[in-house]
Design brief:
mainly alpha
Length: 86
């Protein structure tokens, strides 16, 4: 048996919300707590999973090199501007 809660049993939505859902005009803004109710990973668990996947595909090392390169170019450009602006 699943631990997932059936929210229909715990919440009685107002008639306006039901009608908006039927009309196709309902927009839901759902926080992270709902994903936990559905036994989905937390933000940290998801981030770790993505990082492990990137590392396993050797993309994490490539990404690190790209970030370092972009940072060094940005620093060099800023130093050039500072020296020539004075």
């Amino acid at each position: 048996m699943s631990k997932v809660l059936d929210l229909r049993e715990t919440i009685t939505p107002p008639e306006e919300v039901i009608q908006a859902g039927l009309d196709g005009s309902l927009i839901l803004f759902i926080g992270a707590g709902v994903s936990r109710l559905l036994e989905l990973p937390s933000w940290n668990e998801l981030a770790l999973c993505v990082l492990k996947d990137l590392r396993n595909k050797s993309l994490l090392i490539l990404l690190r090199h790209i970030i370092l390169y972009i940072s060094s170019v940005s620093i060099a450009k800023n130093n050039f501007r500072v020296e020539h602006d004075q």
